[in-house]
Amino acid sequence: MAETARKKPAGTVTPEAKAAYRELEAGIRTIRGAVAEIRRALRKTERAIEAQARARIRALRKEARAQVARLEAREREVAKTVKRLRGAAAGSWSEVKESADTIIGETRRTAASVVSRFRDALTGT
Fold first, then answer.
1. Which of 71, 90, 93, 113 is most buried by its number of CB atoms within 10 A?
2. Mean pLDDT in each 10-residue stretch from start to end of the chain (125 residues)?
């Protein structure tokens, strides 16, 4: 009988295949580590962005309170002016109305400007 080449059993793996498998596993571990690091960095960045947003909201609220206080002071000033003009006009209601309309118009423009600035700040424009 002639000598036949011996075949390896089906369950054995060559050393080269084992080395390649270990390399693949190491690559997978590296990728998993990179993904975990990206997730940690993303969470850290999200927290920083949220903190900045909270600080910006606090600043906007503070500014809004100051603007409202100025508008309320302006409102009191307008009321005093109207009261003073009513007495000084001595029956000339058209002069009182004209002066009041001018003052109220200025106040409305100021209020609209404040609202516009806050709207722009909130929308990021």
1. 71
2. 56 87 94 94 94 91 89 86 71 72 83 80 74
